[in-house]
Amino acid sequence: MKKLILVFAAIMLMMTGCGTTEKQKSSDQPKTEETKKEQVTVQITKDNGKEKVTEKKVDIAEETTVMDVMKDNFEIETQFDDSFISSIEGIAGNEQDKTSWFFSVNGEEAMKGAKEITLKPGDTVEFDFHKYE
Fold it and tell me: How far apart are CA 102 and CA 127, in angstroms?
């Protein structure tokens, strides 16, 4: 009878140890929300969206502006004290052809400069190169 009790006690201890190990493993795994990166989508097109130049999903931090994203992820040139993007990926506007870059955030035309618009996770930034009148 003593042997049966000892065997039973040993089995119980082993089962308790297994349960503890499982809890440690599951708590060591990162939660999906913690590993989810904060991103925005940037689309670069020409001729009112007719020609796609590139599209990227870009990681952002708090207080990231459109200009920050563009400088960090694309080849750009700026004018007017770094407040106007004049060239993206080697495509530059000019007065003779009356072409320039225009941008919107979440489908709304930008009413401020790229340095003044702060992005939020999930935003979509669209730059389009086309003629102006």
Answer: 6
What is the domain range of residue 91?
38-131
Nearest to 90 by CA among 51, 49, 129: 129
Write the CATH number for 50. 2.170.130.30
- Round to whole Å and give the CA distance between 13 and 19: 10
Q: How many domains does the chain have?
A: 1
Rounded CA-CA distance 86/70 in Å is 12
Q: How far, in Å, are 45, 114, 126 from residue 48 at the CA level? A: 7, 19, 10
For the purposes of burial, counting CB atoms within 10 Å of the CB of 28, is it exposed (0-12), middle (13-18) or buried (19 or more)? exposed
pLDDT recorded at residue 37: 76
Predicted confidence band of residue 12 (pLDDT cuts 50, 70, 90): low
Q: Are 89 and 46 in contact (CB under 8 A)?
A: no
pLDDT of residue 71: 97
pLDDT in tens, 46-85: 999 999 999 999 999 999 999 999 999 999 999 988 889 9
